[in-house]
Structures are given as C-alpha cells and as structure tokens.
Amino acid sequence: MSWFNVDKKGLAKLMEGRSKSFVLCELLQNAWDEATSRVDVTVAPVEGSRSVQITVEDDNPEGFQDITHAYTLFAESVKKSDAEKRGRFNMGEKLVLALAKRAYIETTKGTVEFNEHGRVESRCKRDAGSVVSVEIPMTRAEMNEVIDAAYRVIVPHSVRTFVNGQEIPCRKAVTEFECTLPTLVSNEEGVLKPTTRKTLVRIHEPVSDETPMLYEMGIPVVETGDKYHVDVQQKVPLNMDRDNVPSAYLRAIRVAVLNATYDKITKDDAATTWVKEACSDERAAPEAVKKAITERFGANAVAYDPSDPEANKRAMADGRPVIYGGNLSGDEWRNARKAGVLPPAGEVTPSPKPYADGGRPVNVIPESEWTPGMRRVVAFAKDVAREILGCDVNVQIAREFGWNYNATYGDRELTFNLMRVGHKFFDNGISDEVIDLVIHEYGHHYSNDHLSREYYDALTMLGAKMTRLALTKPELFR
C-alpha cells in the first residue's frame, strides 16, 4: 500500500496567485531537454468555457522515456545526473496537471488521459514525438500573459519553437563566456548534491519593456533588475518553486557578468546595486573594479586623506571629486586599492611639507656669503615680524634643489630658498614680490592650511598691518 495520497485540489490551491506562465515554461523545458528539433505550442480559449487549452508538441524521436513519470510525483528523474538538463524533482508536469480540468499525453510509449473521473491509460502510441495538452481555468488576461511569456524565453538555437504558428525568434547574445558556478547533480545513489562546475553563460540585452532576469538554459527564473538577461547553461540552484536562487549564487553571477562586460559599463550602470555588489567581491577583476569606480566617480577622483586635511581641499580646488569613507563599503575600498584607483589626496595634491622627510637640515647659506641685497631682505623680514607678529623670527637663506617652495615658515623660523626665488629677488630691494612672499609665509604663523578660514583671515589681517606699518614707518620699505 502506498504511504501517500496527493490531494489534487489542495495542490492546486497552493499555486493560486502564481502566474499561469509557469505552465508554458514547465512544458517547454521538458520538450527542449530531449533530442528535439522543433516544438509547436498552441494557446487558445476553449469555446463555451472559461478555460484555455495549452498544447505542446515536439518531434523527439524517442518520446517520453517513461510515461508513468507524467503522473508520479518525485519519481527518480533521469535528468538529475545531467547538469545540462533543466529537470531535477520530476515535479513540473504534476503541478501543471494539478491546475488542469482535463489533460492528455500522447507519446511513443502510449497515451494517458486525465479527466473528471481520473486517469485512463491506453496503448495508442505515436511514431515519434510527444504531445502534452492541458485545459486550465484561466482568464483571457492570464491567457495573454502566457502568450507574452513565450516571447520572454530564450530559445535554444538547435530547437525551432513556434507559438500559435509564429516562430519565436532566437536572441543574439551580447557576449558569452565560461565560468565556474555552483550547480546540483545527483550522485550514484540519486541524491542531489551541490557542486561547482564550469559552464557557458550567455548575456542578452532585454528588449522593449522586459525586466532583466536570470535564466536557466533559456527558461526565466527570477527577476534581477540588473542590466542584462543572464542565461546559465547548466542547472541553477533553485528553490522548490523554481522562482528564486540563493543570494550567494546571485552575487557570483553578478561578479562573473561584471568581469565579462566591464568595458560596457556606463556612469549610470556604475551606481547600480549589482555593480556595487560585484565590486565588493574578492573575485572581481581589478580592471573591472577600476572601470566601474572610474565611471562612478570620475577619472581624477581621490580618496579623502585624514592625514593631510589641506590635500583634500587642494584636490577640490583642482576640480577633483573627493571620495569619503562612507561612499564605498569596506570591501569596495579594498578592491579599489587593489585596482589602483582613488589614491589618497595626500599623494595627488599634497600640502606643502618641506620638512616631511624627518626634519632634514636645509643647506643654509652662511651670513658671510650673503650679498647686500640678501642682508637687506633678511633685515626687513625680521623687522616686520616684530611689528606685525609681535615676536622675533629667525630668518635664513638656503640653497635647496629638492624643494618646490620659494620659502617656508614654522616655529618662528623663515627660510628663503635661493634656488627658487633667484638672486634678483634679493637684488631688487623691498619689492612687491618680497612683501607678497613675507605676508604669505607669516600667514602660517596662524595656520598651516592654505585653504582654511584661519589662514585666509590671517592674510587679510597681516595685509592691513603691513599697510599701517608702511604709513607709520616708511623707512622699513625703502
């Protein structure tokens, strides 16, 4: 005696609310999985009723291998051990039959009919191929949805497929590539086991108003909302309802797609969820991450550098986007560094740091070698410091080839760099150039940040004091 009975009505109720398009997909995938070259689908209303007849006919020479599988739930599927066939639970046709009022299957092994009285089998056989026909209660809107669903499948190039006499066109892939992905294959005991396997993946552009989806060998599985349709040419690890995949699997798909199509990524794409998720994965190729990050933020973007606040402001002043920590996840930052994008602002627009290499001594020119002009400028700088800074400042002249600075100021010490300003700077007396440089450097008495409000205020204040000094003690400027 059998341990189980299946309540057909109860099973049908479990599927209420599910799109009727799954009926067509289940029947199509069974036809495509065999040695078939042509499949004909008919979807038509049943006259005088609120039902629709869906018929799928194929030309597979062998027909059904075992016709009892059409009505035996969870029978040992011959497809379980083949990763390149869509079935695994031997369940799809049973879900379709649960919805049907009437149905019949004709194949090379015989015929079975389902009606209100039950199941009737006969020895009537076809010479080749199979026909599966089901009458299912359905609104006209649902019928149209089924027909529309037929044009969302991705037809195998080896199988011509027709719906109500019209051929579904084959789609041309944008690109295709091989990668290793998780799948399910049965072991010697017939138990499905997760494994990984190299497979072909095809990328297709969605047409008209299609939502991008993940496909299993041409059959749509789950909407992704990403950029492309992704058609995996092996079993996808699906749930029992065949309408979703594990999040880890979807992530692996997104990484593989980004690595294969990064050259097509646009600025709008770069800000989408799927690209961000792929860029945060350690499997993302550095060149793919670099392209995505560059499209998202710009080729000259830099990372905020907390060790050099002025460098960040200098970058912004140069028109460079400054990217803060919260703009990317920790994993995205890790991959960005590996890809060589978003360098710290301190490396690209560093603030002046003449003593950054450990306070090395400058090549100071002894006073005995000063020219009269040098003595005059040094004396002016010292006198002005006492007047406008209110303190004494040590002033020296250096001969530094490695510095890109005309002068530096720090710890009440001002150093002029002869190799930058030249001899004329000193020989021309107290010129506008001298006054300008002295005010600039004495501004650092109040702030080291060239772009800070404090430095700006210091310059205007020192300019006012220098003006007052020129009026009250003009002899300092002669």
Helix and strand arrangement:
Layout: H1 8-14, H2 21-32, E1 38-45, E2 51-58, H3 92-99, E3 102-107, E4 110-115, E5 118-122, E6 130-137, H4 140-150, E7 160-163, E8 166-167, E9 175-186, E10 192-204, E11 213-216, E12 219-223, E13 229-232, H5 247-261, H6 267-270, H7 273-279, H8 286-297, E14 302-303, H9 309-317, E15 322-323, H10 330-339, H11 345-348, H12 372-389, E16 394-398, E17 407-410, E18 413-417, H13 418-421, H14 423-427, H15 432-442, H16 453-472
Keywords:
alpha+beta, 16 helices, 33% helix, 8-stranded mixed sheet, 478 residues, 5-stranded mixed sheet, Heat Shock Protein 90
Total individual domains:
4
Number of helices: 16
CATH first level of the largest domain: Alpha Beta
CATH architecture assignment name of the largest domain? 2-Layer Sandwich
Residue windows where pLDDT falls under 50 for at least 5 positions:
none
Give the terminus-to-terminus CA distance.
120 Å
Shape: rod-shaped
CATH homologous superfamily designation of the largest domain: Histidine kinase-like ATPase, C-terminal domain
**What kind of sheet is the major sheet?**
8 strands, mixed
Number of strands: 18
Average pLDDT number: 88
> Radius of gyration over alpha carbons?
39 Å
Helical fraction equals 25-40%
Q: What structural class results from the helix and strand content? A: alpha+beta
Question: In what range is the share of β-strand residues?
Answer: 15-25%
CATH fold name of the largest domain, please? Heat Shock Protein 90
**Strands side by side in the biggest sheet:** 5-4-3-6-2-1-7-8
